[in-house]
Amino acid sequence: MSKAIDLFEKKYPNITVKAESVGAPNDLFNRLTTDFAAGGTTAPDVFALGGALPQQYGGSGQLLDLGTVSKYVDIQDYAATATVSATVKGKLYGLPTGGNAIGVLVNEDLFKKAGVDLPKANWTWDDFIKAADEIGKSHTGVAGVDLRIQDILGTYIAQLNKTGVYDFKGKVAATPKQIQSWLEIEQKLVKGAACPTRRSSSRTTT
């Protein structure tokens, strides 16, 4: 961070940047809630947000509409898919600091030990559930799957509606039926042996 600030101040010597440590992410969010409740006069000028927070703060008018500073911030270089979560009613309130691709990490040795075939290009969610369940039942000492729900949900919904949880206008695009279908997948994983339960929480997950 300090290197980025040094480069910025070198290019814009008339601007001084003061970095503030806020600790864990929740510490920042709690601070912002307090700042904005008091009028936002002590909130940082630039800060990071995730999840639905850009929608929340942007929709309530607490963030800068970047369209008003297009002379200084070129938002045309960003794909619409990268700015959906920070767009509210056609206005953009934030820019991504990076991007990721969601995938499945497979332990080939574990699959082999459990006698489960490795994934193929035409793998389906049903195949995924079956493989995870078989591994969980194979007495290898591990659960079949470890899901990052906050990441995988958006990817799953995007397979159903092309955009994910939000559409390109920043509105919620996921339907209750789509969310329910993911919860049903989770229930299948828990009902089988794919996910650890409270009683089996001591098991090691992959």
Say what the CATH topology of the largest domain is: D-Maltodextrin-Binding Protein, domain 2
Largest sheet: 2 strands, antiparallel
Mean pLDDT: 84
Quote the distance from N terminus to C terminus: 33 Å
Description:
InterPro entries: Bact_solute-bd_prot1, SBP. It holds the Pfam family SBP_bac_1. It comes from Pseudolysinimonas kribbensis. This is Extracellular solute-binding protein. The protein is mainly alpha-helical and 206 residues long. It folds into two domains: 2-92, Periplasmic binding protein-like II (D-Maltodextrin-Binding Protein, domain 2), CATH 3.40.190.10; 108-205, D-Maltodextrin-Binding Protein, domain 2, CATH 3.40.190.10. 40% of the residues lie in helices and 4% in strands. It has helices at 2-11, 25-37, 53-59, 80-83, 108-114, 125-136, 149-161, 176-191; strands at residues 87-88, 91-92, 142-143, 204-205. The chain has a two-stranded antiparallel sheet. A hairpin with a 2-residue loop joins strand 1 and strand 2 (91-92). The radius of gyration is 22 Å and the shape is elongated. The two termini are 33 Å apart. The relative contact order is 0.10. Mean pLDDT is 84; it is low at 201-206.
Topology:
Elements: H1 2-11, H2 25-37, H3 53-59, H4 80-83, E1 87-88, E2 91-92, H5 108-114, H6 125-136, E3 142-143, H7 149-161, H8 176-191, E4 204-205
Parallel strand pairs: 3-4
Antiparallel strand pairs: 1-2
Can you summarize this structure?
This protein is mainly alpha-helical.
Task: Tag the structure with descriptive keywords.
D-Maltodextrin-Binding Protein, domain 2; 206 residues; two-stranded parallel sheet; disordered C terminus; mainly alpha
